[in-house]
Design brief:
Layout (H helix, E strand, L loop, with lengths): L2 H7 L2 H16 L3 E3 L13 H18 L1 E8 L2 H13 L4 E3 L5 H8 L9 H7 L2 H12 L5 H6 L7 H13 L2 E3 L2 E4 L7 E8 L5 H21 L3 E7 H34 L4 H24 L2 E3 H7 L1 H19 L6 H19 L7 H28 L7 H18 L2 H18 L16 H15 L4 E8 L2 H17 L3 E3 L1 H4 L3 H16 L4 H7 L13 H5 L11 E3 L2 E9 L3 H8 L5 E4 L1 H35 L1 H25 L4 H24 L3 H22 L4 H20 L13
Parallel strand pairs: 1-8
Antiparallel strand pairs: 2-6, 2-7, 3-6, 4-5, 5-6, 9-12, 9-13, 10-12, 11-12
Helix pairs in contact: 2-12, 6-7, 10-11, 11-12, 11-13, 11-14, 11-29, 12-14, 12-16, 13-16, 14-16, 14-29, 15-16, 15-28, 17-29, 18-27, 26-27, 26-28, 27-28, 27-30, 28-30, 29-30
Keywords: Membrane, Transmembrane, Transmembrane helix
InterPro entries: Mycobact_MmpL
Organism: Pseudoalteromonas ruthenica
Length: 748
Amino acid sequence: MSSWARSVGIVLWPTFLLLCTVAVWTLKEVRISADMMALLERQPTQAVDAQFYSAQQQLSSTAQNQLVFSFSGKTAVNAYHELAQKLQQHPSLKVKVQPTLKRITEFYQPYRGALMSEGYQQALRSPTAFSHYAQRQLSQTASPWLSSSISDDPSLATFSFLDTFATGQQLGLVDGKLQWRQGGKPPVWLLVSEVTTTATIWQNNALAAELVNAVRALRQAHPETEIEYSGVLFHNSENAEQAKWEMNRFGLASLVLLAVFVLLAIRGVWPLWVSLLTVSSAVLAGALALLLLRQQLHVLSLVFATTLIGVAIDYALHALSDRAKKSNSYSVALKRGLLLALGSTALGYACFFTAPMSLLQDVAIFIVAGLCGAWFFVRFVVIRAQRPTQLRPLALSTADCALTLFARLRRRKGAIALTLAGVSGLLLSVQWPQVNDSIASFNASSAQLMQAQKRHHLYLNGDGPTFQVLVRGESIEQLLINEERVRSFVQLHQGRFQGLSVALPSQQSQQQALTLYRQAQQQGRFSFLAQLRGAALPADANTLLSYEQFAQGPLADVFLAPIKQGPYFYSLSTVSALEHASLSGYLAEFEDMQLVDVPGQLSAMLAHFHHSIHWALALAVLAIAIVFIAFFGLRRGAAMVAWLALSALLVVTLIAVVMPLSVFHTLGLILVLALAVDYFIFYQQSGRQPTTFVAISLSALSSLAVFAMLVFSNTPAISQFGAAVLIGLIVVYWVAPLSIENKNDKSD
């Protein structure tokens, strides 16, 4: 076969993969997501839990569509109106118009006597207590709720209900706008909007960019006003853009470095051509597998998948180096080594399938399929091409010097092993490994957006921890009764409760309040208020406020509407300024209530996975030990396993000194073990050959180039994964040559 024919012929396999990938991409719709909270999919364990989980998903999706904008400064009100007008004209957004005080008081006036605060009810039971209570309330001349409600309800019952409701929200309504004020600080105006349309990641990114540009324009037009924004849309957009930037930059930089390494070590264009086609085959095979097996992909999985570049090229480098050693053919040891390398690395990544994260499962599919594509290309295309290669003299001379150095080190490998073990023990005594499996590892949002999110949380929910409570009932009435139970407990423990029952008490509560109101009226409890008014008090309510009437009122859009699933109605409430243990302990007593702490649930799930993955790590080590012993004998295999275990211990202790260990460090360690097996296998087969050392060195450099990039990722999960593999590869690269038997040194 001519040189030209061989050069063209090896393109057939990557071309075939490219055509298949394009065909599947065209025929099958695959969505790309940037939602950080969707990375972990919590699987309910019981039927009841499944019902709650389904309702939680539906209610939370509505809350996640909320966008919040805040304005503070001299021209805050003008900036507020300008942005509100722009948002109202947008087809994908709905501005939550806040009702005026007048509309709210007018809506509740027909139900006077049936709506009152807990404090008002307590005061009604005693003439003296009520007299003192009424005098205190009447002295609140600055309260807008008092001035807007007292003319229609001089009994102060409606005022007590509205005042308590407003206080519970930690916000005020001024001219139909939400205002937050604390002490002598300038007021902060809040504009709340909602994304009303379902769109692709690209459309959501475009919407987020449009809103950010609108805010920037407002900041320029109102330099003395501070304008901030927050919402899941902005977080997902920033994470998607960051992932896109990293994927492009890391991938390009990795390819450039790989090309440089190959050109510096091997002569000619052919090795570079083979290396690039090997990487292309791997990427296309991985992409094809993902498109065939998945309906939705996460952008972070594509960033993780760039590591395939540094792993897949190993096969080409070993083949090229082997051919440089044998000018007329490829060795049988190479073919066996390639197969063992594929199996060991694929086994390491296969551990990712046990993760409760679609992201890591996608990475496993991409990497394993990509490695198979690269192995097939090298084994059945490159090797059959029979194209000779030649290493550069500088690479060979450097390899000879390095082999001489390692030969000397192997004569002292007992002392080296004890030293490494001692260093590991010393590091453990300095810092015992700590664990941190927070779901925040997936978040790469900017510090500015995170600070805005915290401030908006303070404005809307107050300070202190905040939790959500999912409540259900067989009817709306029972749902409200259950909510009121939670509310009573929260208020008893000085917490804050926000939920539908705050604005819409159950009819049971309304009837009890109305009965108490009528008894007080018959006992003349309101006589002094009538004297102040100069006329008798108006009649009390003839009807109770129902959910259907509330849904037509001014506060319907302010509160999250309950949903119905199966025989139950579900609602989502917010509790703040209360300890988690206290709230969870109370809710555990009721089967119709459940605490919703999504970040906490996902972090706990991640921690559980981290704990369980140690079994996968143990299985991987066992499988590696079996492979070593089966192919190299009991003594040599056991020695290789011992060196590998010592390397892993040193890596763990080095990471633990710098930062707490996360699940991504452990996953990185598993990958290091899988890659280390390749080094050990090729060293055992032909470790004294300079060509083998060059191939392993190029392989290590290519992997280091890729994983070193990941260390600089803004996403902590990716950075942790890259750091673990980077440190691990450096350690293994220096330890692997020590695993060769001393008798091999006699051939020098």
